[in-house]
């Protein structure tokens, strides 16, 4: 007769009950916790060594909970393993400086990129891995399961139902991964209301609600002032539109952050119209509601946008353009980073964005010796998703041109995602955009990583656009040809200086490299007069006053 198992199957649930009882002994019963009691609550429910998710998205930040976590007694709470999308606030770094946290797995650290690099080099931060968003979200359900999640929402009712509004972002995936593994969820909210406009997170998934003394911080991360777009960026945008968008008939796109993609958006109603491309390109996007897309939306180019997050000042405009954006029955928009990442990975034909460094083989990274910006969602969208099975003209054409397709799959037809990097040959402070060896190698050694943190691998990259021209890397038949094509557009960088003029000429003859002249573009035409909006005020006018830019972007 088989013996009955004596193993405990509800240890996590019992542990959570003990933590909640400890909180009740301090605070009493009830979900709503006063701001003055939050530090004691955190000390009661967080144990040393816990995996803790502190919601820090691209824009929405659980900033009050982050600040209160920094106030816990390090003798009571220490050795935390932070698992969070973004390292965006000073308090995110301060947790490590105070000894409260010791390890982090994350995706993006734009605002804190320099401080993070310093903290890793000094040994204050132990780096797990730099993830893409979907990768990190997936690990929330496998081996980086949060024991405690600290999230943010606009509103809660007295039962604890949460309304996350246009900046829903990561909240659903964080809460579900935590709560359905018997973890504890604490939400800071801007206000308590009698009835939320819609229930984004149900009350029984939330353990505590904290009315924050002030609204959570929102970063207008994707807002670019047209007044700061340069002629060099306009030239690259013109080349991209004529040499890539038009050539492949790209309808579904993800644009990365930056002035280069903002220039493309502002050229659609002008240069794009001149090229006769309306209706032939850029009908659907997976991206945040970029203000620089307003002229293209208003002039009928864009039919559909699904958003990763919101954008400060765009709320009313998005709400009033429900044919373009996703708006709920309550009349308010809702973003979802997980769904948008899936759309960006599988449903779009092209990713186009920028990077900090590209090496001789086409590998690129935003993790350098002095700045660890992370990757965000770029690796999900800046790759050729092998699981894709639906066809589109752009995908099929890029696959047909793949110079190494037969070596990989024989005669079997297969499409390919367009993955484009817009790169200045020299960046800020004359740092070369093309290098012989990525700084990511040094970061690997300093942080004890297994491999260099590469954002986009060279074999996924199909095009590089610089002021020198476009390199159509996917048309190359060998790694040697790809290196030659990269050298041809790398300008006077250490990589570009290795270019052989006769080799470059042969590549131009075969259409692997195209200069502005090859594309029929006069660089002298690359002027700001081509932009559909010259400044933020023009964007407000295009929107009919619906766009309400943050104060730092207003100069009138």
Number of helices: 19
Mean pLDDT: 95
Write the CATH fold name of the largest domain.
Answer: Glutaconate Coenzyme A-transferase
Corresponding CATH architecture of the largest domain: 3-Layer(aba) Sandwich
Overview of the molecule:
- The protein is of the alpha/beta class.
- The protein has two domains: 13-218, 3-Layer(aba) Sandwich (Glutaconate Coenzyme A-transferase); 229-537, Glutaconate Coenzyme A-transferase.
- The chain has helices spanning 11-27, 38-45, 63-69, 90-97, 113-121, 133-140, 171-179, 231-248, 259-274, 294-298, 315-319, 337-347, 378-381, 393-400, 405-409, 440-447, 479-489, 501-509, 536-542; strands at 51-54, 80-83, 101-106, 126-130, 148-156, 162-163, 184-192, 208-211, 252-255, 284-286, 304-306, 350-353, 357-358, 364-365, 418-422, 463-466, 469-472, 513-514.
- Strands 1, 2, 3, 4, 5, 6, 7 and 8 form an eight-stranded mixed beta sheet that branches. Strands 11-10-9-12-15-16-17-18 form an eight-stranded mixed beta sheet, sandwiched between helices.
- The protein is globular.
- The model has no long low-confidence stretch (mean pLDDT 95).
Protein topology:
Layout: H1 11-27, H2 38-45, E1 51-54, H3 63-69, E2 80-83, H4 90-97, E3 101-106, H5 113-121, E4 126-130, H6 133-140, E5 148-156, E6 162-163, H7 171-179, E7 184-192, E8 208-211, H8 231-248, E9 252-255, H9 259-274, E10 284-286, H10 294-298, E11 304-306, H11 315-319, H12 337-347, E12 350-353, E13 357-358, E14 364-365, H13 378-381, H14 393-400, H15 405-409, E15 418-422, H16 440-447, E16 463-466, E17 469-472, H17 479-489, H18 501-509, E18 513-514, H19 536-542
Parallel strand pairs: 1-2, 1-5, 2-3, 3-4, 5-7, 7-8, 9-10, 9-12, 10-11, 12-15, 15-16
Antiparallel strand pairs: 5-6, 13-14, 16-17, 17-18
Helix pairs in contact: 1-2, 8-9, 17-18
């Amino acid at each position: 007769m088989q013996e009955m198992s004596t193993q405990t199957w509800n240890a996590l649930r019992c542990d959570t009950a003990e933590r909640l009882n400890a909180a009740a002994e301090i605070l009493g019963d009830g979900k709503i916790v006063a701001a003055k009691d939050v530090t004691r609550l955190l000390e009661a429910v967080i144990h040393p060594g816990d995996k803790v998710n502190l919601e820090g998205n691209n824009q929405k930040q659980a900033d009050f909970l982050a600040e209160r976590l920094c106030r816990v007694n390090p003798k009571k709470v220490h050795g935390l393993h932070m698992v969070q999308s973004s390292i965006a606030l000073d308090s995110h770094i301060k947790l490590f400086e105070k000894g409260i946290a010791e390890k982090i797995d994350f995706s993006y650290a734009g605002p804190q990129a320099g401080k993070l690099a310093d903290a890793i080099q000094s040994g204050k931060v132990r780096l797990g891995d730099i993830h893409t968003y979907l990768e990190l979200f997936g690990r929330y359900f496998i081996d980086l399961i949060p024991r405690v999640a600290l999230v943010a929402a606009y509103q809660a009712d007295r039962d604890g139902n949460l309304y996350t509004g246009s900046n829903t972002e990561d909240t659903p995936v964080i809460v579900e991964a935590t709560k359905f593994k018997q973890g504890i969820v604490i939400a800071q909210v801007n206000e308590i209301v009698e009835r939320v406009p819609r229930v984004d997170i149900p009350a029984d998934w939330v353990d505590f609600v904290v009315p924050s003394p002030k609204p959570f911080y929102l970063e207008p991360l994707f807002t670019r002032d047209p007044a700061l777009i340069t002629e060099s960026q306009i030239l690259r945008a013109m080349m991209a539109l004529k040499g890539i968008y038009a050539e492949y008939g790209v309808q579904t796109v993800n644009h990365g952050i930056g002035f280069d993609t903002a220039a493309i958006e502002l050229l659609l109603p002008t240069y794009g119209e001149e090229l006769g491309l309306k209706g032939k390109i850029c009908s659907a996007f997976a991206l945040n509601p970029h203000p620089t897309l307003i002229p293209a939306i208003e002039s009928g180019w864009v039919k559909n946008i699904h958003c990763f997050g919101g954008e400060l000042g765009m709320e009313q405009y998005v709400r009033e353009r429900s044919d373009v954006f996703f708006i709920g029955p309550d009349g308010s928009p809702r973003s979802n980073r997980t769904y948008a990442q899936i759309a960006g990975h599988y449903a779009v034909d092209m990713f186009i964005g920028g990077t900090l460094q590209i090496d001789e083989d086409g590998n690129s990274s935003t993790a350098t010796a002095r700045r660890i910006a992370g990757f965000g969602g770029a690796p999900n969208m800046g790759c050729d998703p092998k699981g894709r099975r639906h066809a589109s003209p752009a995908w099929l054409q890029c696959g047909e041109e793949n110079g190494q397709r037969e070596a990989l799959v024989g005669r079997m037809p297969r499409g390919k995602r367009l993955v484009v990097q817009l790169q200045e040959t020299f960046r800020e402070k004359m740092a070369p955009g093309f290098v012989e060896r990525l700084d990511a190698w040094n970061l690997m050694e300093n942080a004890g990583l297994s491999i260099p943190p590469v954002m986009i691998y060279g074999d996924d990259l199909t095009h590089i656009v610089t002021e020198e021209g476009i390199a159509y890397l996917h048309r190359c038949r060998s790694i040697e040809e790809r290196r030659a094509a990269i050298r041809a557009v790398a300008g006077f960088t250490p990589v570009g200086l290795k270019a052989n003029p006769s080799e470059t000429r042969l590549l131009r003859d075969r259409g692997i490299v195209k200069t502005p002249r090859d594309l029929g573009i006069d660089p002298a035409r690359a002027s700001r007069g081509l932009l559909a909006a010259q400044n933020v005020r023009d964007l407000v006018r295009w929107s009919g006053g619906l766009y309400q830019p943050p104060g730092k972007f207003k100069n009138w």
